[in-house]
Amino acid sequence: MNRQKTILIIEDEKDISRILRDYLTKNKFEAAIAGNGKDGLHMMELLQPDYIILDIMLPDIDGIDLCREIREKSNVPILILSARGSDTDKVLGLGFGADDYMTKPFSLSELLARINAHFRRYESMAVAQQDPDSLSLGNLVIDKKAYKVTVDGKEAALSAKEFELLYHLASHKNQVFSKTQLLDAVWGYESYGDENSVTVYIRRLREKIEADPSHPAYLKTVWGVGYKFSLD
């Protein structure tokens, strides 16, 4: 029997955090609440959660700064909640290592779909026997078991979602994927996804693995179609 997944909710609005906790508990997750960033960091170390829901506006620390601090300690998936819906916030949040982003007000059923999609995708990657455990491509080594990527022997600091996107593209070398296909394959929720997130992740990956991100050797744009991993 699989253990229940633990989700940490870092949210200072008590009504929202309680609704989230009750809804997640009803749907077979263990859920814990932290009302500020300091408590969130403490509970993260204590609970070692499987997933974090993080409000971007907290009383003691900006959520983006907290996201960056969490990412320095752990690759736990992070979904940011924000009342600010601008693209700038979205790019900023994903750029500091968040895996997903939703704006308030939000649908509980959509939030649950995103969380479940993440765990389905993670588990399918972990058990997929047909996929190689390690890919060696150019100066990259992509280790699926360790969720680790090295560039010229030096580890690149990737979030879990960044790794999954890179692995998906690299394990289907030269195959072109649209943004919608990548959302479905990597995030697992085609109907709920924001295609701009794919653009942000591709840019972040290029910054981390490419010698010259403006002229990528691996992650190629196929204009009008999507992206592919190529050694050409």
List the helices and strands and how they pair.
Elements: E1 6-10, H1 14-26, E2 30-34, H2 37-47, E3 51-55, H3 63-73, E4 78-82, H4 87-95, E5 100-103, H5 108-127, E6 134-137, E7 140-143, E8 148-151, E9 154-156, H6 160-170, H7 179-187, H8 195-209, E10 219-222, E11 226-229
Parallel strand pairs: 1-2, 1-3, 3-4, 4-5
Antiparallel strand pairs: 6-7, 7-8, 8-9, 10-11
- Assign a percent range to the helix content: 40-55%
Shape category: globular
Series of H and E elements: EHEHEHEHEHEEEEHHHEE
Strand order in space, largest sheet: 2-1-3-4-5
Give the class-level CATH name of the largest domain: Alpha Beta
Instruction: Write down the CATH topology of the largest domain.
Output: Rossmann fold
Q: How many domains make up the coordinates?
A: 2
- Strand-pairing-aware structural class: alpha/beta
What integer value in Å does the Rg equal?
Answer: 18 Å
CATH homologous superfamily name of the largest domain?
Answer: Response regulator
Distance between the termini: 46 Å
Averaging pLDDT over every residue, what do you get?
87
